[in-house]
Amino acid sequence: MTTATVPAPGIRRTTAAADWRALGTTVRLVVTEPALLDSCNLLLARHLAEVDAACSRFRADSELAALDTAAGRPVRVSPLLAEALAVALHAAEATDGAVDPTVGSAMAAIGYDRDFTLVREDDRPVRLKVRRAPGWRLIDLDRATGTVTVPSGVRLDLGATAKAWAADRAAAMLAGTAGCGVLVSLGGDTAIAGEPPEGGWQIRVQDITGKAEETPTEGPYTTVGLHSGGLATSGTAARNWRRDGRDLHHIVDPRTGLPVRTPWRTVSVAARTCADANAASTAALVKGADAVGWLTRQGLPARLVTQESRILTTPGWPTHLRGAGNCATSPHRGTAE
Fold it and tell me: Which of 19, 74, 282, 331 has its CA 20 to 30 A from that of 174?
């Protein structure tokens, strides 16, 4: 872990930041009260450890992995996993199935069956086969009894939602406990809570073209001032690998079970929550050419970068964002920067 006290440009108050790794990705915590950084960081580490134990697809002892062997029987789950599943199912419904948690088998089939740091080192051949995801409507989550039923043979993957949801949950928990402004970023999926710095949290949105999500060495970028809610970026350029001469990445199209073919290299979205923003940015990659119109109809400010580096935006981007509910929604096809 590295820490630093960072004076934000144009902001009188200093902020304190900590950077480390968890959930197979980068973690960044920033607070507006430097004296509270260490205690907040301990709480964050504990929270992310609990999320990993509940939601990891790569741990044999996780709650999520236990569902693989339930053979279609109802399983009582922790409130934490129930909440994570509810968020995933809501994302599936909100995106018309473009983000679907039943792609677990498809993810394993393309070789993403372990922590990503190990995926690139694996040279086992893969057999790519078009196979539609079973579908999120098959999952029965009963919040009243705290049980979930997953049909036999269906494997869940919460990678498209759990990280952003964990950022939302952590930011709200830390702001409530510490009584200060908090920013939590997990792999670039950013959630904020509490009183923001004067002028809002200044967040650089970078088009990642390198091989690692934490080192966006080149590409166009912009800076936005975020006052509430969340901001997320999804793309095909960071988490990719080669097998048998094939270029693969981690964004799977539920309609085919294969890595999505999309005109977009990255999509960044602001929304009321980081989970909503991440679901929308991932769905935009899957929706392809229809993404700009879909995001505009949802009233979501977004920045889309094509494979040729052309930049399009939807209404409300890149103004001082206060959550999608306060952004303009007049329809157009986007504005080139």
Answer: 282
Range of the domain at 111: 61-149
With a CB cutoff of 8 Å and minimum separation 6, the contacts of 74 are 140, 142, 145, 147, 148, 149
Half-sphere exposure of 31 (CA within 13 A, CB side): 24
Rg (CA), the chain: 19
Q: What are phi and psi of 164, to 5 degrees?
A: -65, -40
Q: How far apart are CA 288 and CA 280, in angstroms?
A: 12
- CATH number, position 115: 1.10.3980.10
- The pTM is what? 0.83
Helix (H) or strand (E) holding 42: helix 37-55
Q: End-to-end CA distance of the chain, in Å?
A: 37
User: Cis omega (within 30 of 0) on the bond before 318?
Assistant: yes
pLDDT (tens digit per residue) in 168-181: 999 999 999 999 99
With a CB cutoff of 8 Å and minimum separation 6, the contacts of 204 are 221, 222, 223
| 193 within some domain | no
Helix (H, G, I), strand (E, B) or coil at 148: strand
Q: What is the DSSP string of 59-74?
A: -TTSHHHHGGGSTT--
Look at residue 188 and tell me if it is in a domain. no
Retrieve residue 24's tokens: 């197979």
Cα torsion 46, 50, 56, 62: sign: positive
Q: What is the pLDDT of residues 103-160, one digit of tens each?
A: 877 666 665 554 545 445 555 555 656 477 899 999 999 999 999 999 998 999 898 8
Domain total of the chain? 1
